[in-house]
Design brief:
There is one protein chain. 69% of the residues lie in helices and 12% in strands. The protein is mostly helical. The protein has 2 domains: 1-85, Ribbon-helix-helix fold (Orthogonal Bundle), CATH 1.10.3990; 88-120. It has a two-stranded antiparallel sheet. A hairpin with a 5-residue loop joins β1 and β2. The termini are far apart.
Amino acid sequence: MQSIGFVTEKQIEAWLERETRNLPMPNGPCRSLTAFNLTWEKLDDLVELAGYTPARLVDFAIEESLLQKAPLEKTFPYCVAYLYDHLDVLIVKKKRRDNFKATAVKITGKAKTAFNRASH
């Protein structure tokens, strides 16, 4: 995740270049989508830092497409931008979820050990 403080013109130009990626669609096949490099960079951050999958982000965008009666090419970048804008909250939620899972595994392991001891 890159901090947006001072940004050079060269960085902005690079973000505004377009790239095409294949995204998984709910019905199976992938679909090519062209977006700004900035969109793809933010998508990568959402996947890496907040635990989203590209498929889940596509689901959000499809839902938004149906609500707004707009094409996926427009709603996908909007959804990525919206979620990225809330990335700090999403990271905290992911850490809590991961901590909860780790704690649940520890508790389950201790409970199982205690049960096994008690039953012998």
